[in-house]
Amino acid sequence: MRLKNCFGPLLLAFIQQTSAQIPSVKSFTPSSFRSSFIVDSNVQIIVDSRFAGSGSPTLGGFAQTFRSDLESVTRSNVSQVHIGNAPSSPSVPTIFLTLGVSNSSNLTLFNGKPSVEGYEFEVTERLYTIRGVEAIGAWWGTRTLLQQVVLSIANGSNPAAIPAGSGSDNPGWEIRGFMLDAGRHWFETSFLADLCIYASFFKIQEFHIHASDFVDNPTILAGPNWRDLYSGFRFQPASDSPIFSLVPELNESWTQNQFTTLQTTCSNHGVTIVPEIDTPAHSLVISKWKPELMIEGSPDLLNISFPETIPSVKSIWDAILPWFTSSEVSIGADEYDESLANDYITFVNDMNEYITSTSRKAIRIWGTNEPSKMEKISTNVTVQHWWFPGGSIPVQLMKQGFSIINSDQVFLYLDGKFAENGQFPWTLNLTLLWSGAPGGKGWAPNIFSANDPTNNTSIDNPLLRGSIMALWNDWGNNATTPLEIYYQLAQSIAVVGEKTWAGSDVRPSGLTQDEFERIYPILNAAAPGQNLNRATGLPPGSEVFSFDSISSFPLETTFESVGPPYTLSFTVKPPPPSPASKNDSVSTPLFTGLDSILYLESMTFEDPATNLRYDLGFDLVPDVFTSVEIHATINHTYAQLNGSAERFYWTSDLSIRGAFFQLVNMSFAAPSHVIGQDGFAGELVNVSLKLGD
């Protein structure tokens, strides 16, 4: 929020306690009276009985989720949601959710189109009213209220005090999203759901899931062993489906029930999942299924001219399309052979007509410039621009009538753990996004080029739909754990929320970089509905648990997983060797948690999501006590033995397209849930887990 009226310094400071948010609110006019809405244990939520069933999800459904979130940020119980009329003189602090704004013409996108996501809010001493254009607008209004509560508490007001006044808010663009490459890296739906919930807190409304791809190694790809390359197709059809054998690993795929639950969770938080099955390039997984469909010598490319290829691709969509609740899907369609441009365009148009006619869903493609003078892609296909100079040129496409989504790699690309040639940052570059556009201005979805203004467009271009940032996983499962992916995404999601909702150098209310960096850590730590930080609720430096000795195993503790930074200390005496311990299949878990397992053998960490193991390369001496300290941050995990200053890092060796190997550090959450296992014959003493590295 920003202030429209002038007040004395004391009142101004009082109101500004909760002024800056992510994303920033369009307008706020403070009340002429110095009063505030107190969010204490008496607060109640009422949903307007006229609109409780409106929307999908409904206003009433959103209210239930909001209640749970409010309990999370206030750390107190909130009474059950009530359905009723607007209270005239409430006796307790009341939050009233309704529909029907006073001036919908003021709540439009930057291009002038109406937005159902807009809302108005009015705050008095006892009543906080949120009026959405539709239910989704009221939902975003609840995100604003929650952030006001969080920031007020952080500024020393507990219970939270929200300044009285009135305001209105709406997004600048309809598409405000992030993409995750799940084709090259396996993720469980529980993790993806948590990402949805987290992103929703920053008013992100779309989660693009790239659900099929392969880990590239050009030498292997061009040789006889191309089938050995890792590939993923994440949708697991029914066992009697004609495409059932398409899925490489059933344990790395989502059933329809799992994906339906994921979509529902995301939808209940205002986020739509847009699924992508990438063809006719990036299609190694399909070539493994039906080798006759590939271009000879290029198994990642489908031979579109082969009679069975397009029908086979359609059969994949036939099996999976009924799963999807989104109004749009992506068919990928980038980086195909330019010499086959006409075939490519025929493919895109055929798939567009087929998917639209069979499911009434629109399609998107990645922006690939196919040099054909004979054919043209249908303009009802949305193009997701991602690179210059060989890719699409957005301003030219918009002149031709194409709708565009901005995913330009200079501003919006990340790669899991390591970026080849240093071309992408670890997390989105804040300085670039606030001052890297032409003229030293901030980036917004209308900016496609950092150095060529002719490649940019105006914020009100009716064919500019918005932006989606992307995190790719070019190096596969062993490059990162799921939580490491979250560490890369967390701040980036928040900044994209600000830039796609409020723009940059557009609204006077927009955040400065300093403001963003000041409030982001506060909001990140409080984001409700998930615990991707694996926070304990204890202050920094606290001891999570401590045991001088453990007499029996296993020992269960309170926390399933504890995020970095932390220090895990213990002294262990491994049992003497036995015939069974020489068997490689035998592993002794010392510590087990939701996100990691630490084994005695070779001091190995395991990522339970991918079942990959990372060891230090040496075993502790049997029948001898060794003291171990494990230190972790979001960027690394290392061990120190017997008080030595020498550090031993857990690492992974990445094959970078077969050209070279890159050693990278691994970060693991503390495996804090179970200590030891039944029958452990060694000794474990002086066990301690403390917050802080």
TrEMBL record:
Superkingdom as given in the UniProt entry: Eukaryota
Glycoside hydrolase family 20 catalytic domain sequence ranges: 174-338
Signal sequence region: 1-20
Any matching Pfam family: Glyco_hydro_20
One GO-annotated biological process of the protein: carbohydrate metabolic process
Family note: Belongs to the glycosyl hydrolase 20 family.
Molecular function in Gene Ontology: beta-N-acetylhexosaminidase activity
Record SUPFAM superfamilies: (Trans)glycosidases, beta-N-acetylhexosaminidase-like domain
UniProt KW Zinc-finger keyword: no
Active-site annotation: E335 (proton donor)
Enzyme Commission designation: 3.2.1.52
Reactions mediated catalytically: Hydrolysis of terminal non-reducing N-acetyl-D-hexosamine residues in N-acetyl-beta-D-hexosaminides
Protein name as annotated: beta-N-acetylhexosaminidase
Broad EC category: hydrolase
Annotated PANTHER family: BETA-N-ACETYLHEXOSAMINIDASE, PUTATIVE (AFU_ORTHOLOGUE AFUA_2G00640)-RELATED
Keywords of this entry: Hydrolase, Signal
